[in-house]
Amino acid sequence: MKNILILLFSVFFIGQSYSQTIILPVVNIKSHKTLTIEKIEFSENQTLIFLSIENQKTEGEAWFCADEKIYIKNTQGTEMYYMTKSEGIPTCPEKYKFNKPGEVLQFKLIFPKIPANIKEIDIVENCTDNCFYFYGVILDAAQNADIKLFEKGVTLYTNKKLDEAVKCFLELTANINDKKSNIYGYSLYFIPLIYFEKGDKENAKKEYAKLVNSSITDKGYFIEKLSKEEFFKNLK
Hints:
By secondary structure, the protein is an alpha+beta fold. It has two domains: 18-139, Immunoglobulin-like (Sandwich), CATH 2.60.40; 142-233, Serine Threonine Protein Phosphatase 5, Tetratricopeptide repeat, CATH 1.25.40. It contains seven helices and twelve strands. The chain has helices spanning 2-18, 141-158, 162-175, 182-197, 201-212, 219-227, 230-233; strands spanning 20-23, 27-30, 35-42, 46-54, 63-64, 70-74, 80-82, 85-87, 96-97, 104-112, 120-125, 133-138. It has a five-stranded antiparallel beta sheet. A five-stranded antiparallel beta sheet has the order 2-12-11-6-7. Helix 3 (162-175) runs antiparallel to helix 4 (182-197).
């Protein structure tokens, strides 16, 4: 039994070292509204990017293709990795013609394996007509989770779901990996504001004190933002 367990653990960790998947990675800027990165897989020797695009055109011909000159670039550096193969989509000038509005085309782009220390990439179609791009694709799993939780909290706050929103921001500030990030600072800003809007002045003051005593880079900016809110006038 002991040997079997050792074998199973060995297989598991070998698989982990050769394969990682990021589901719906966070993207800072993209060219096409309905073009989505469904997932990115890192295998032993390849980087596989799975995408989908939905046709929203209701009149005239709608089509899509992928130029052969697509590359990945390290957002924070100069390294570039060109696509070696595509699957499920024609190579331009060949075209995939959509049959109806709402139809979704799914396809895959394959690149060489990129180094594990690259945490953010751009994906660029190097062409001259209606080319697509993604800038600032986050590859770090923990950072993706933090950003998604922050976005969830903002959406809940915007929709006045204050109890659920503050839970998101509290979880984020308790567990976030990068306390120098903007989303950490914004979370410290939102928490006292939400408590005040909930009528909980005691927790609002306590959480405001955490912001004041924090060492975040832009602390003055967030304190100034709160000073312009009704919240600040009722601190005492």
